[in-house]
Design brief:
Number of domains: 2
Order of helices and strands: HHHHHHHEHHHEHHEHEHHEEEEEEEEEEH
Membrane topology: Multi-pass membrane protein
Strand content: 15-25%
InterPro entries: Claudin_CS (IPR017974), TLDc_dom (IPR006571)
Subcellular location: Cytoplasm; Lysosome; Membrane
CATH class of the largest domain: Mainly Alpha
Low-confidence stretches: 409-423, 438-450
Largest sheet: 12 strands, mixed
Shape: elongated
Radius of gyration: 26 Å
CATH architecture of the largest domain: Orthogonal Bundle
Helix content: 25-40%
Protein name: MTOR-associated protein MEAK7
Pfam families: TLD (PF07534)
Distance between the termini: 77 Å
């Protein structure tokens, strides 16, 4: 009878499909009993699907007494469904209350330690990786198949990267107000958090994921053009991919396309240019000899020219030993630069800063790079590498989003003819590096130039 009243109250909150799923999940957690769902039973059932610490903290929220001195032994369907409701269609305030109750042992306290928040985020991320890894049709498996792992170190670094938005408040205890501000400015955590609870309920409710509203912005991008070399070992791990993908413009988060690896394609600047030019927005990932991992996001297709390109969606970032992301200040427009065979100008690829003082620089004599102490192009910038002048140990380039539309025949994407001079980009780059001037550029057929 008690659960029947809870069901009536829930009827107006959920669709019929959702209600069937929630009822099935409730029965699954309670062992088939309609009014006998206990905290211990819930934790044991949910720990099969998510991290035990996350199951315990959620049970703490669900079974928290409404009055001091009381004890909550059983919960009804309506209460059981509250985390799902908060995640799927709840307000920030409802999400905040769920998080606070999960973090605090006492509902009367409005102060908690940053370590408590980090431990909770850690359990959410670990649960997300596990859920995706065991889900049919998940886009995580192609990443794992080519060597993208999830280690303790990268997960902890990801957690600390997410809480870095709190600023100096991470040094002390936190208030409810600080936590609410953090939720507002950390949509990536809200996305992952939602996905964990929606998958948890739908999986235990025996429901297909299709009844749940799909997210408009992917958390993890689809892996395209995966490296086929059996010796490939990625620079990054899955938490790195998750972190960086959330920093990109929304229209480029759905897909990453593999372009270049120095371990597969060789330590060749010309080979790299042949792989990355005219491929749309690109992501660079560099591991230096000090085992720092860092890079940059270039929003425009690369092309050789004596001036800067790009726009203010450009980014620089570090991944190890810490995850940080630096967005544009709009102080200048020095976002991306690529030039070769110049007597009075730098020859190589750069992002941010100015000539000879780069936020990120890859010299045309592949292997050498630079990241200076200060770069006004990017906000809150810190030097990416351990040393200002660094040696490249490994370098990868990925394209973000879809390949720019171009006809595969001689017609360009705008209906104009393309010259054979515009093909064979790798050979062309090699000639430029060797100092061979492309005199044939002046011999294009009439009408081929812009």
């Amino acid at each position: 009878m008690g659960n029947a009243s809870g069901k009536k109250e829930s009827d107006n909150l959920y669709s019929s499909d959702e209600l069937r799923m929630l009822e099935a999940a409730y029965k699954n957690a309670s062992g088939g009993a309609l009014e006998k769902l206990t905290s211990d039973r819930l934790v044991e059932t949910w720990s099969q699907t998510i991290e035990r610490s996350l199951a315990e903290s959620t049970a703490q929220f669900l079974f928290m007494p409404t009055k001091p001195g009381q004890q909550c032994i059983n919960i009804q369907l309506r209460k059981f469904a509250e985390p799902y409701y908060a995640m799927e269609r709840g307000t920030i305030d409802q999400k905040l209350q769920l998080l606070l109750s999960s973090l605090q042992k006492s509902g009367s306290s409005d102060i908690f330690n940053i370590k408590q928040l980090e431990q909770y985020i850690y359990s959410v991320i670990k649960s997300y990786i596990h859920l995706e890894s065991t889900s049919k049709g998940s886009c995580i498996k192609p990443w794992q198949d080519v060597g993208f792992n999830t280690t303790e170190r990268s997960t902890v670094t990801f957690v600390k990267g997410l809480v870095r938005n709190l600023g100096k408040e991470t040094e002390h205890n936190m208030t409810n107000e600080a936590l609410e501000r953090w939720l507002h400015i950390t949509p990536q955590f809200l996305q992952i958090w939602r996905e964990v609870f929606v998958q948890l309920y739908s999986r235990h409710g025996g429901s297909k994921r299709t009844i749940i509203k799909e997210m408009e912005i992917p958390i993890l991008p689809e892996l395209c053009d995966a490296p086929q070399n059996s010796h490939y070992r990625p620079i990054m791990e899955l938490p790195h991919v998750l972190y960086i993908n959330a920093q990109l413009p929304r229209e480029h988060r759905h897909k990453w396309r593999f372009l270049f690896s120095s371990k597969i394609n060789g330590e060749s600047f010309s080979t790299m240019l042949g792989k990355i030019m005219d491929k749309g927005p690109t992501l660079f990932f560099i591991e230096d000899e000090d085992q720092y991992i860092f890079g940059g996001y270039a929003p425009e297709s690369w092309s050789l020219k004596p001036s800067f390109g790009g726009d203010d969606t450009s980014l620089l970032y570090t991944l190890s030993p810490a995850m940080r992301c630096f967005s544009a200040t709009n102080f200048n427009n020095h976002y991306q630069y690529l030039n070769l065979n110049q007597q009075t100008m730098p020859n190589g690829l750069g992002m941010g800063g100015q000539f000879d003082f780069w936020g990120l620089w890859i010299d045309c004599m592949f292997g050498d790079g630079q990241s200076v102490e200060s770069c006004t192009t990017y906000r809150d910038y810190v030097q990416l590498s351990k040393r200002k002048q660094f040696k490249i140990r490994n370098l990868e380039v990925w394209a973000a989003g879809d390949l720019p539309v171009k006809d595969e025949d001689e017609d360009g994407g705008d209906g104009q003819k393309r010259s054979v001079l515009d093909s064979n980009l790798e050979d062309r780059a090699m000639l430029e590096i060797a100092g061979k001037k492309m005199h044939s550029d002046g011999l294009r057929e009439p009408g081929m130039d812009d």
